[in-house]
Amino acid sequence: MILVNRVLAGLDNRVGEVVLLSVEFVGPRVGEELRDDGLASIGIACLLILAYIAFRFSSRFAPGAVVALVHDVGITAGIFVIFGLEFDLRVLAALLAILGYSLNDTIIIYDRIRENLTTRRQDSFADMLNLSINDCLSRTAITSVTTLMAVLALMIWGGEVIRSFTITLMIGVVVGTYSSIFIASPVLFYGHEY
């Protein structure tokens, strides 16, 4: 409250009489609640995604998608920790957006795998996975580059307010594209072996 009185006195001297309507303080407890709620929302999203993939495809596809999503969030958050970047609600919103983006990419590859499972029964599972990934590779690369261009434009001209959001999305798009190809499908392959 002492700081508020000093600010009011300074404003009174420079601009005239100032009327204080209210004073609110957000302490560390609120930040802790936001962090806990944010982590809970990411966990719930992963569980719902697990159920969705198991329903949409089959239960053997779901672990690969969830491992890829946990990888995306973990790597992106890890980069924030390594570089000491501020982790706020905008970053949390971007992490949830990354989950959706990466899941979409993974689902497209899984759709191609499921389609090739029915049409290419003579191929081994490893060859069929490789073919499916190669079928989607150009589409995935073009989509990722286009998304990165849009996010880069937001980073340059969007201002300081959304800077942490765009940095998180830039990292997440790269990591999400990588994980859809090199994590989700290999987990499916190794799960198929057992």
At a glance:
By secondary structure, this protein is mainly α. The chain has helices at 2-15, 28-56, 62-82, 89-119, 125-157, 163-193.
Q: What does this molecule look like?
A:
This protein is mainly alpha-helical and 194 residues long. 82% of the residues lie in helices and 0% in strands. The protein has helices at residues 2-15, 28-56, 62-82, 89-119, 125-157, 163-193. The longest helix is centred in the C-terminal third of the chain and has 33 residues, at 125-157. The mean pLDDT is 86.
Characteristic terms for this protein:
single chain, 194 residues, mainly alpha, 6 helices
Write down how many β-strands occur, each being a DSSP E stretch of 2 or more residues.
0
Describe the main β-sheet briefly.
none
- Helical content (DSSP H or I, runs of 4+): over 70%
**Mean pLDDT across residues:** 86
Provide the fold topology.
Blueprint: H1 2-15, H2 28-56, H3 62-82, H4 89-119, H5 125-157, H6 163-193
